[in-house]
Amino acid sequence: MTHTSLPFPDGFLWGASTAAHQIEGNNVNSDWWRKEHDPAAGIHEPSLDACDSYHRWEQDMDLLAHLGFTDYRFSVEWARVEPAPGAFSRAEIAHYRRMVDGALARGLRPMVTLHHFTVPQWFEDRGGWTADGAVELFARYVEHCAPIIADGVRHVCTINEPNMIAVMAGLAKRGEQGFPPAGLPFPDEETTHAVIAAHHAAVKAVRAANPDIQVGWTIANQVYQALPGAEEVTAAYRHPREDVFIEAARGDDFLGVQSYTRTKIGPDGPVPAPQDAERTLTQWEYYPAAVGHALRHTADVIGRDMPLIVTENGIATGDDSRRVDYYTGALAAVAAAIEDGIDVRGYLAWSALDNYEWGSYAATFGLIAVDRVTFERTPRPSAAWLGGLGRTRELPRDAS
């Protein structure tokens, strides 16, 4: 079998990502915990213990380091750090600092995300992101995270997928549930402005903690592809759902790109994938090349001077050989983008663990399988393969 070298620059981030609520378990003060236990919300199953990573984070990091990864992206849970307004838990801040120290001790560079979808229940009760003073409250929380991030953390993500936060807010305001067969609903404009303001305030707070930290945020890229004659429709559809958030990153140190599949746009809007298209466990079209398109579009919008990091990319599947195939195609697309001059600084897979995918455990994204009863971790063959690529930087050419 022939191989091709991956053109990763020195210091390239090579890792996997997780989110606190999806793996920690028992985040009882978060808005999602309350939602999961509200019958009216229609959530398929609650997170409960999740992967119990709040107690087993050392085991998770041991596995990632042993597999060959050099970077680990994890998040801090706001509802733990500030369970009541203005009441900051020294114990929880110390817990997340131990995670940073634990990563460093294992040779894993920590990338810390300060907000990954969940907020404290008290913040939601105040009206969420669009309430008076919400931006200042988020900035205050970020300031209190300084002991976690100020030493030894090179990369900080302020807010994960703010465009999805705005989309979900739009659904809630309209009293709607669920997503259309293709594409995304229209984001709430007020929430869009609020999270952008919160991000800018958080960037200042992070830089005050340590000006050497590289700070940015991460955008969910839907890879909108125009069908013939639908170029203007596609641009109009994409702009409020994606591009305004990319443009808001000007002045940041990096921008996180997150992508899984594509969305085709016709003259009348989003077009579902063909019935015979291969689909993942999330029912998304199997499309490994998505991340390459996402990187190129992001660079086109914000300019090629902005460093990009793939902060999430992966596949929900029960066939681990198909997971390897997906990552092979995705990494070939990343390599091609780098060779074309796009400044890509890292690749972090989603996800390190099988976890709670916002309503269900059925969609298995994990490089590492997790037994829901015993919490035993079992690295899949794809985990050893992907981790090893960070050392060999050799990708099978005929599988790409």
Question: Could you characterize what this model shows?
Answer:
Keywords: Glycosidase, Hydrolase. It is an enzyme of class 3 (hydrolase). The structure is a single chain. The chain is α/β, with parallel strands linked by helices. The protein has a single domain, classed as Glycosidases (TIM Barrel), CATH 3.20.20.80. An eight-stranded parallel barrel has the order 2-3-4-5-6-8-11-12, surrounded by seven helices. The termini are close together.
Question: What features would you highlight for this structure?
Answer:
single chain, 400 residues, alpha/beta, TIM Barrel, eight-stranded parallel beta barrel, three-stranded mixed beta sheet, globular, Glyco_hydro_1_AS
> How far apart are the first and last residues' alpha carbons, in Å?
12 Å
Order of adjacent strands in the largest pleated sheet: 2-3-4-5-6-8-11-12
CATH topology: TIM Barrel
The pLDDT mean sits at 96
CATH superfamily: Glycosidases
- Sheet-strand content, in percent, reads 15-25%
* Structural class based on helices, strands and sheet pairing: alpha/beta
Order of helices and strands: EEHHHEHHEHHHEHHEEHEEEHEHEEEHE
Rg, please? 20 Å
Determine the fraction of residues in helical runs and give it as a percent range.
40-55%
Low-confidence stretches: none
CATH architecture: Alpha-Beta Barrel
Query: Could you tell me the number of beta strands?
Result: 15
Number of domains: 1
Shape annotation: globular
So what's the CATH class? Alpha Beta
- Number of helical segments with 4 or more residues: 14
> For the report, how would you describe the main beta sheet?
8 strands, parallel, barrel
